[in-house]
Write a structure and sequence with these properties.
The complex is a heterodimer of chains A (172) and B (293).
Chain A: E1 10-16, E2 19-25, H1 31-38, E3 57-60, E4 63-66, E5 79-81, H2 94-101, H3 111-124, H4 130-136, H5 148-170
Helix pairs in contact in A: 2-5
Chain B: E1 5-8, H1 12-21, E2 26-29, H2 35-40, E3 48-51, E4 61-64, E5 68-72, H3 77-81, H4 84-89, H5 91-99, H6 103-106, H7 111-117, H8 124-130, E6 134-139, E7 142-147, E8 152-154, E9 157-158, E10 165-171, E11 178-185, E12 196-204, E13 211-219, E14 226-227, H9 229-235, H10 242-255, H11 266-290
Parallel strand pairs in B: 1-3, 2-3
Antiparallel strand pairs in B: 4-5, 5-10, 6-7, 6-10, 8-9, 11-12, 12-13, 13-14
Helix pairs in contact in B: 5-8, 9-10, 10-11
The chains are: A alpha+beta (172), B alpha+beta (293).
Chain lengths: 172, 293
C-alpha cells in the first residue's frame, strides 16, 4: 500500500442546520476547518485546536462535541447543528436573547460555543441547577465575563423555555 | 495536520486485517479526543486511520445478571454515564467516566479508548480494576481475554499485539453487599488530569460490618494504573472500621511509586494516595451498606 497516493479528497454527505450538504474534504481536515473554510459557517471559532476551550462546540446528532476533534469525514450521514442554525427564521433563540439581555457577551469569541453547550444541557435537562450548568459549561472557556452572567443567562433561558412549554401544553 | 487516509469499518475482522497489514502505520480511530490531538501535534504518526466506532459489536452496552455488564470498546463515556443500570450497579466506573474531560469530550471519548491510550493517570482504569473487568481482544491470531490490571505495561503501552484490538470490556455482576467508588485529586474541579486517582470496591458480609473482599487501585502514581493487592488482602475478613480502612490506605501509600512532574510533587502524591484511598474505601463501604441485600 506504500505506493498509494494519500490525501485523496473524499466526498461527504451530511445534514447541517437542517439542510442536506455535500462537500469534498481531505481525511485530515477537521469538521471545524470544513465548516469555517469550505462551508462559510464561521460561527464555530478556532481557539485552542485541542479540545480544551470549547469555542468550536457544535451538536453532532444532538451530542455536544468539539468540532476541532472531529474529522469532517466522520460526519457522513449525520446531523450537525452550528450556531447559525439555532435561531428560528425570525428573531433569536431564547438562549441568544438571554445572553444579550443579561450581558453575558463581551468579546463574543466563546459565545457560539457557550450557547450550544447550554442548548445541549437544556435538551438533556430543562431544569438544571447552578452547579449542573457550571459543569456543562466547564468545557467552554471565557476570558472576559467571569462566567456569572453566562450562568444567569442560561438560568433565565431555562425558565423562559419551560414557561413556553407550559403555555403550549395549556393551549389545546 | 499530517496527511492520512481514512477507512470506516463494519466488522472486527475487517479492522484487524487493515491494522495488521499496514506496517504499523495504521492507527485505530474511535472518539479521536486523544489521537487527533497527538496527530496534530506530531506526537504520533499515521498513514491510515481505521474508524472502528461503526462496528456494531463495539457499541454493545448491556447487562444481564449472569454475565454482568458488556461494555463495547467504542461506547462513549456520555452513553455509559447516562445508562441507568450502569449508574446503579457500577458506580465506580460511572464516576470515573464522568470525570474524563468536558461534556464535549465525554460525548466523543470512549471508555475503551481511555484504556488503550494507557495513560498512567487514566481515570477509567483504576475503576475497571476494582470492578474486576476483563478485556476481550481480537487479533490476527484469534481471540483472547486479559484482566484489566494486566492490560497496561508502561505509559502509553499495552499488551495489544500488532493488528489486535480491544473489542469489549466485561464486568461481572456485583454480588450482594457490593459497593464501589472512584475519586481523584485535581487542582481544578473540571477539565483536568488526575494528580492522584483512587478506586475502591468492597463486598460486605450479611452483618454489614465485616469486609469479605476488597479491591483498591490507584492512578497517576506508577508507570501504569496500580492494583494494590496488599490492601485488599489486608481488609478481607476484617471489620469495616476506620482503623482498618486507615491501615489499608497506608498500604496503598507504601505501594505507590509516584514521580514528580508538572502536575505534582512525589511527596504530595504520596500523601494524597493515603487520603484518597481512605475516602474511596469509605465511599465503597457506604454504598455497600446502602445497597439492597
Amino acid at each position: 500500500m506504500n505506493s498509494k497516493p494519500y490525501a485523496k479528497k473524499v466526498q461527504v454527505q451530511a445534514q447541517i442546520n437542517g439542510e442536506p450538504v455535500e462537500f469534498l474534504c481531505e481525511p485530515r481536515q477537521t469538521l471545524l476547518e470544513v465548516l469555517r473554510e469550505s462551508l462559510g459557517l464561521t460561527g464555530a471559532k478556532e481557539g485552542c485546536s485541542n479540545g480544551n476551550c470549547g469555542a468550536c462546540s457544535v451538536l453532532l446528532d444532538g451530542v455536544l462535541v468539539n468540532a476541532c476533534l472531529v474529522l469532517a469525514v466522520e460526519i457522513q450521514d449525520k446531523r450537525v447543528l452550528t450556531i447559525e442554525g439555532l435561531a428560528p427564521r425570525e428573531g433569536l433563540h431564547p438562549l441568544q436573547e438571554e445572553f444579550l439581555r443579561q450581558g453575558a457577551v463581551q468579546c463574543g469569541f466563546c459565545t457560539p460555543g457557550m450557547i450550544l453547550s447550554a442548548k445541549a444541557l437544556l435538551d438533556h435537562n430543562p431544569h438544571p441547577g447552578e452547579s449542573e450548568i457550571r459543569r456543562w459549561l466547564a468545557g467552554n472557556l471565557c476570558r472576559c465575563t467571569g462566567y456569572e452572567k453566562i450562568v444567569r443567562a442560561v438560568q433565565a433561558a431555562a425558565e423562559r423555555l419551560s414557561q413556553q412549554e407550559a403555555a403550549v401544553e395549556v393551549k389545546p | 495536520m499530517q496527511e492520512f487516509d481514512y477507512v470506516r469499518v463494519q466488522s472486527v475482522q475487517e479492522a484487524v486485517a487493515l491494522l495488521a497489514g499496514e506496517e504499523n502505520r495504521a492507527r485505530i480511530l474511535c472518539g479521536g479526543t486523544d489521537l487527533l490531538v497527538q496527530l496534530r501535534e506530531g506526537q504520533r504518526q499515521a498513514r491510515l486511520l481505521v474508524d472502528i466506532k461503526t462496528i456494531p459489536e463495539l457499541n454493545q452496552l448491556h447487562y444481564d445478571p449472569v454475565n454482568g455488564l458488556t461494555l463495547g470498546a467504542a461506547v462513549s463515556c456520555l452513553r455509559l454515564c447516562q445508562d441507568e443500570t450502569a449508574r446503579q450497579l457500577y458506580p465506580g466506573l460511572v464516576e470515573a467516566a464522568s470525570l474524563i474531560g468536558s461534556v464535549q469530550i465525554q460525548g466523543r471519548a470512549s471508555v475503551g479508548g481511555n484504556v488503550c491510550n494507557a495513560s498512567p493517570a487514566a481515570d477509567s482504569i483504576p475503576a475497571l480494576i476494582v470492578h474486576r473487568a476483563v478485556c476481550r481482544l481480537v487479533g490476527p491470531g484469534g481471540e483472547r481475554q486479559a484482566a484489566i490490571e494486566q492490560f497496561c505495561c508502561a505509559p502509553g503501552k499495552t499488551i495489544l499485539q500488532r493488528g489486535e484490538i480491544l473489542v469489549s470490556l466485561h464486568l461481572p455482576p456485583p454480588p450482594p453487599g457490593f459497593g464501589a467508588g472512584y475519586l481523584r485529586f485535581t487542582p481544578r474541579n473540571e477539565m483536568d488530569i488526575a494528580v492522584v486517582g483512587a478506586g475502591a470496591a468492597v463486598i460486605l458480609a450479611e452483618d454489614q460490618q465485616t469486609i469479605r473482599w476488597a479491591r483498591l487501585a490507584l492512578g497517576a502514581v506508577a508507570p501504569t494504573p496500580l492494583w494494590v493487592e496488599a490492601a485488599g488482602d489486608f481488609l478481607a475478613g476484617r471489620a469495616a472500621d476506620a482503623e482498618n480502612v486507615q491501615q489499608a490506605a497506608r498500604l496503598a501509600r507504601q505501594a505507590a511509586r509516584p514521580i514528580r512532574d508538572v502536575r505534582g510533587e512525589a511527596a504530595q502524591r504520596s500523601q494524597l494516595v493515603e487520603v484518597l484511598a481512605r475516602r474511596a474505601l469509605e465511599t465503597a463501604i457506604q454504598r455497600a451498606r446502602a445497597a439492597v441485600h
